[in-house]
Known about the structure:
With 943 residues, the protein is of the alpha+beta class. Helices cover 20% and strands 33% of the residues. It has an 11-stranded mixed β-sheet, covered by helices on one side. The chain is globular, with a radius of gyration of 33 Å. The N and C termini lie far apart (94 Å).
Amino acid sequence: MNKIMSLNGDWQMIWDTEDLGISNRWYATYPENTETVQVPHIWERKFEKLLMSQDCAYYFKRFTIEDEKQVTKRIFLRFERIATHATIWLNGKFLGDHFGAYTSFVVETQKAIKLGEENILCVRVANMGAANSRIDFGRESADGADDRYVHPGDMPVGLPWTQYPFGGIFGNVDLILGNSAFVSDMRVEPDMDQERVSVEVSFNNPRNFQTRLRFLMRNSVGDVYEWNKDGVKLDRENATQRFTFSIKDWKKDKCVWSPDKPNMFAIEIQMESKNSKGKEQDFSFPVMRTFAFRKFDCLKGDFYLNDQILKIQGVGYNQQWSEGGLWTTDNPKLRDDLMAVKKAGFNAIRSCGAPLSNEALDICDKIGLLVFQEFPIHTMRSTPKGVEIAKRLINDIVREQHNHPCIAIWVLGSENGTFMLQNGNKLLNAISPVDMCRPAVSNLDSIYIDNEAGFHKDTGKVLPVTNDHISQFASLQINPKLSINATYSHYLAHMFNKDEDELMVPDSGLGDSHFQDDEDTMEGIENKMLVTLKNHTLLSAKATTIAGPRSVKNQKAIKNFYKQVEGFVEDANLSVWKSPDEFRKDVNSISIKSKLDQITALQSNPQISGFFLNHWADFGTDFSGLCDENRKSKGFEAFIKEITAPSRILISELEHVVLAQSEVSFQLTLLNNSRLENAVVEISVIDANGKVLSTQKQEPEEQTGKTSLSQFGICSIVAPRNLGKYQIKLTLLDNGKEVYSTSEDLIVTEQANVKDAIKKVCFLDNSEESSDAMAALEGPEQIIFTANLSSWPDEILDKIVEVTKNGGKTLLLSDMTPEDIDFLNQSHQFDCTIESHWTTGANETSLHYLPKDSKLLSVFGGANVLDHNSAAVMPGLSLNELPNGTVFARSVSVKNGELKTGVDLQMIPFGNGKIMFNQFSIFEGLETNALADALFTAIVDLL
């Protein structure tokens, strides 16, 4: 009798909200007032409302094994998935416990099972509820409560432990009924180079057992091959044996797995039934594994698939789902969602915060989607006991999932730098005994930079497969500002390049002061970097309707945000948008164009090995998903197609606003995953009527096709003679055939009279000594310009106040930093209170715009809303609107699910004079940038 008996279906369940189950021995006394539930069972998908105290439940299942001949010798219980801690009793006797929601586990029933009688199985399931912020292990121990409860700080774990109310027996439950021996497990080790596969078979057997085995293998085209192994001797109890099989009719295009051709194999082992002697052979209790032949490695930061460099074009696959937390086995939308990722063009996903289930991995195997499989480790600290639990957790996951070819890399976690610095080697060693054929990363986002003064650098070791050179930094997460200018684009295209001389940080808000000032910040990075970027805010046409107990709070927040948008748009004193839909379209178009420019610049960088874009789907009021929380498209397919194109021409360092007949230069690079061998780029300038004004071709600096990235160098064109808006069209040709095309805006503007404007201004920052500054303030200029207010000594500040407040001059405070604002607020000379907030849009989105009657409209071609064409002067920090101020430019930002308004240019009276607060970035571009000149001249005219 070798069979598997399913225990799915009707179970009884009761919540233990008052912590009575252990003390009252529910596992043996079986409480009343239980309710019937269906297993698999997920709390938040089965209950419309949950209390915060409902973080522990008892499940009961009654079953009988009819085995009159007493053939069954070995009986085990197998649990596929339980979240998070499970304690198992059978007929009141303790069988074992298990921690971790992502692997199956087996417990032996020998000391408790009853044959021919009713058995009562009790499973206590505990998760970390918000009511007590602890994981209740439910142990009866002489060590007291400290041994029973584990607090979050003790456990280096993330999802779903922090995703209450995700919990329950959410996988299958089976009773394994075996006779004297059976196959308990099989590990598969494909060898692409040797064109063979080895299998390590684990048996559940007594000593000195002999049997016969049958192996069936199905190749990628459906052919089935059979091998029989007679007289297999199992001398030891619970033995293991290894077998090796060569692949017949090996052909690389039909046998090797890749995203383009996901060729899958399957192997099944069967053990001859002991009762089949003298009869027709009876093989029973099969164990089957799918597998594939492929190699993946990470050497010096480059990713190699089947010995060829692969540029990663991936997306962060956040698994939260409004109707039931993490993706589960009974969610029919899972395959459709993963297929949508694949069809979009991404070649990889990162399982953000939690490993994908076996069901999800099976789908990725079949459709050819690489997975950076992330373990649920998300903390900065842990007790020694927590480290040991994490090691077991990692080992269990790797052991169960290593046969999936889609898994490219094991990722120990993210945002856990301190913990990994102390324990990274220990956890990496938990992988090695089970899987030595994949790279492992200890901390994927080991360097973090954003454009709102955020920066940290932690170790993130990359352990490759084919050599022992461990890289210290795995990847960079960078959240740049919206609408990057040419200088910023140049920085992204050359960062980490040690041969680049004097590469300057392009924005004062990029990273913190340590990042800005320390030239050795990026020292120690010797490998190429994988980049993670977060999408800017991308709004759906209307508020997403989400369901489930977890979603109540989020649903309210989403609706409140959309109401805020409606209220803002209706406010004629603030808004320039006619409708919420018009506002949404501007948010999305600016966000998408900005992210495209950032990715394009980074892909141009030879030191970047690929990117992950966060996120695939929204979650609550985090509107950074490419689809909404219900996995419905938001309509950004064209953008996705652009960034995932296997081969495309990359343009960076382009200045969009130029003077007539000036030289326009930009960098061209070919992303060449298709290995085009005869590629050239055709550059055309086209006017508003579609007329081609000029065309030229650019050849590569070296033969294309050998690498995934080819430099075409600097391209220069001459701007048209007439003012207006034009298009630069770039067409990628291979052997004369068009492969790809893209266009960029080019705006030709008139020369501003900036020299006369400069003559009217006292540029205080040009003064090298205090005496020079004092003399300058005594000069005839009626406008005093400084972008460094906090750097001046008291005597200079006193003089500034004297000539403005008493003397009637105008103080033009430009490009104010948080330090400048703090200084001004603390100074007794100024009687105004300034508040500021970041409006770079780095982590969400900010729009900068001009009021309907603004006198600056002509500078920006009549456009109220400033987009990528205004990148050269775009503010990054906005101020509050001051009393009695005249406002010339405003901002509105999406921040944590709320709208926040600000001011970019305003003027207030100051005694006999005035103060103009200007947050536009103009000082660095004076006399070198057409838009900066025009804006500066217009501001001077205002004064």
